[in-house]
Design a protein that fits this description.
heterodimer; A: alpha+beta; two-stranded antiparallel sheet; 12 strands; elongated; B: Rossmann fold; 7 helices; binds adenosine-5'-triphosphate; binds magnesium ion
């Protein structure tokens, strides 16, 4: 065993260029597999993490029955009933719901101290802060009041604050939205984008005020937090029944649980990662073919030597193992170099995008190593067999 | 003991059939010293290759030490070669990237002999062919005579009972040629069967038994 290894090693060092070529090809294959898997895996965990940051017991309700959830397709021409504040209040009374935040959204010009810009106006309640895990930089969030109380107060995002109240405290100042005045009672701390919603550019006002402002009594969404993960599924059923009772027997509401969204993304991105990794694996096969070619050349170059070894009493299996060991050593060396290159590339990537979490899953690492050794062996078999089957006399005669 | 009965070896070259060996009958006892001579292309190497089991006869039977080896497969032949036969070639056939010691060690590695014993036997063998100061040299750093001595050490390291040499002095000057022959004759005195192919009449005459081959026949 050790002798075979020694023999293989001296044979490899006797042909350094050839060895370098194989190692390089193998390492390119391995590094592309590791890099692509790591990026795919990182994208997946990044997005899943983003959604989980929404809160693990989050329920999102939208008006209308989504066809994707099955059941009867809506009759053509039927428009779903809007979700109203009364619906939200009824849902809030469900014993599976811990908090509820009705949301209405619109866009309007906002101005203060002579400066003006367009902003997204979100109408909600004090519970929004809990449901969406918002943090305050200054002041306080919307006060706990009755859901239909239209207080003239607002909470603004960082961008709004910087642009309208550049050098002074925003707290206590008046902000004009359309033609109504709202007093600024709080500033959100900057969160960056959270699942496509940029709270930095947002002005949050009580939902009743928003309905007056936009003269619209339907809600865009209702966000709710279930009491526990287990209560979530009961909450979904309960909400359906509440709405059915209130909407003349029509369950015209779609409830999205946060974990179903996470699961969907998880599945899509896992599949994507796997696909990309498989494409990268093709380069491994190419490397394998190269290994085979180079080993075949090596066998014919070393024909006299192989003939001699047979003459000296080498069995077929001994010769086969000698060449297989050579192929395996080259493949493993290539794999290790490839991992190193891959890690280096990922490290550089991490330096460029420090916010994007780059992780290389262990299973991918193991799989890449295993695959490279396997390709080395599989593609090494043919040359090794060829060597083992040589006639000693014809091999010796060749000079 | 080597017993060849009605051994023929045919080569098909295109349309033509070459009778390299034509009904050879030959018995060689243990410890004999035989020289094989004859014109070029007469079949000397072919005969030696068949005796050494590197080549198979087209017809006839071959018994080696009372064992019929005619039908043996590749691996069985390898084992018989390893245990019974040593060769020395005209062109040395050393492995270029290995040192003197490593070349000599090779048959023992193939036979699975433990490393400690190998080391022992290698240094003894190197001393016996007077190459102790060249143990770490590679073949291209040695003279022709030295290379052939490495080959002899390698051929005898497994202590074979038969030693076959195909023009071992063909590539050497006469002085190193004589040295090599004396080394081989010395081994023959230790009861090793020695079969020597040569074109040199003076060397051939030193053997106790002289065989002459013409057109694939012994005469
Ligand atoms: N592999 C082969 N294919 C075809 N013909 C062969 C082969 N090997 C040998 N021969 C033929 O068989 C005959 C005997 O060859 P062999 O090598 O035994 O001669 P030899 O006596 O050793 O000659 P030399 O003294 O030149 O070495 C020759 O005619 C040769 O051409
Ligand atoms: Mg010859």
């Amino acid at each position: 065993m050790k002798d075979t290894l020694n023999q293989a090693l001296t044979a490899i060092f006797a042909q350094k260029l050839r060895a370098a070529l194989i190692v390089l090809a193998m390492s390119i294959g391995i590094s592309s597999v590791t890099i692509l898997t790591a990026l795919g895996e990182s994208a997946r965990s990044y997005i899943v993490h983003e959604f989980e940051a929404l809160g693990t017991h989050l329920l999102i309700m939208l008006p209308g029955r989504s066809e994707t959830t099955g059941g009867q397709p809506p009759i053509f021409g039927e428009t779903p009933r809007d979700l109203t504040l009364e619906d939200a209040e009824a849902i809030a009374r469900s014993r599976y719901i811990a908090a509820i935040a009705p949301v209405s959204v619109g866009s309007a010009p906002v101005s203060a101290l002579g400066l003006e810009r367009e902003a997204t106006i979100m109408g909600s309640t004090a519970a929004l802060r809990r449901v969406r895990h918002l943090n305050m930089a200054q002041g306080r969030f919307l006060p706990q009041t009755d859901i239909d109380q239209a207080l003239p107060v607002c909470v603004i995002g960082q961008t709004i604050k910087n642009e309208l109240f550049a050098k002074q405290s925003a707290l206590g100042q008046w902000l004009r939205i359309n033609d109504r005045r709202f007093r600024v009672i709080g500033v959100l701390s900057s969160e960056g984008q959270s699942v496509g919603v940029d709270f930095d550019e947002m002005v949050i006002i009580p939902v009743a005020s928003a309905q007056i402002l936009f003269n619209n009594h339907s809600l865009f969404r209702i966000l709710a937090e279930a009491k526990s993960k287990k209560a979530m599924y009961q909450a979904v059923i309960d909400i359906g029944q509440i709405i059915k009772r209130r909407h003349d027997g029509e369950e015209d509401i779609t409830v999205i649980t946060q974990d179903s969204v996470v699961n969907t993304f998880d599945e899509i991105l896992s599949a994507l990662t796997l696909t990309v990794a498989s494409i990268a694996a093709i380069s491994l096969v190419v490397a394998g073919v190269l290994v085979m070619n180079v080993m075949l050349v090596s066998v014919s170059q070393r024909t006299p030597e192989i003939g001699l070894l047979k003459a000296l009493g080498a069995s077929q299996s001994q010769l086969q193992w000698l060449f297989l060991t050579e192929a395996a050593i080259l493949s493993i060396a290539g794999a290790l170099l490839g991992l190193l290159l891959g890690k280096l590339a990922l490290f550089l990537f991490q330096m460029l995008y420090p916010n994007f979490p780059v992780i290389l899953p262990t299973w991918a690492l193991m799989a890449a190593l295993l695959v490279s050794v396997l390709t080395g062996l599989v593609f090494g078999v043919l040359p090794a067999r060829k060597a083992a089957k040589l006639e000693p006399i014809s091999a010796l005669a060749k000079r | 003991m080597i017993e060849l009965k009605d051994i023929s070896r045919l080569f098909q070259v295109g349309e033509q059939t070459v009778h390299a060996l034509d009904n050879i009958n030959l018995t060689i006892n243990n410890g004999e010293y035989i020289s094989v001579m004859g014109p070029s292309g007469s079949g000397k190497s072919t005969l030696l290759n068949i005796i050494s089991l590197l080549d198979q006869p087209s017809s006839g039977s071959y018994r080696l030490n009372q064992q019929d080896v005619t039908g043996f497969n590749d691996d069985q032949l390898a084992k018989v070669r390893r245990e019974n036969i040593g060769f020395i070639f005209q062109f040395f056939h050393l492995i270029p990237r290995l040192s003197t010691a490593e070349n000599i060690e090779m048959p023992m590695i193939l036979a699975g002999i433990p490393a400690v014993e190998r080391k022992h036997r290698v240094s003894a063998a190197i001393a016996s062919v007077d190459l102790s100061d060249r143990a770490d040299h590679r073949p291209d750093q040695l003279s022709g005579g030295q290379r052939q001595r490495v080959a002899i050490a390698r051929a005898t390291i497994m202590r074979p009972s038969i030693l076959l040499a195909d023009e071992p002095t063909g590539n050497l000057d006469s002085r190193s040629g004589i040295e090599i022959i004396e080394l081989l004759e010395n081994l023959n005195r230790q009861a090793v069967t020695l079969i020597l192919i040569t074109h040199d009449q003076a060397l051939g005459d030193r053997a106790a038994r002289k065989i002459r081959i013409v057109d694939g026949r012994i005469c």
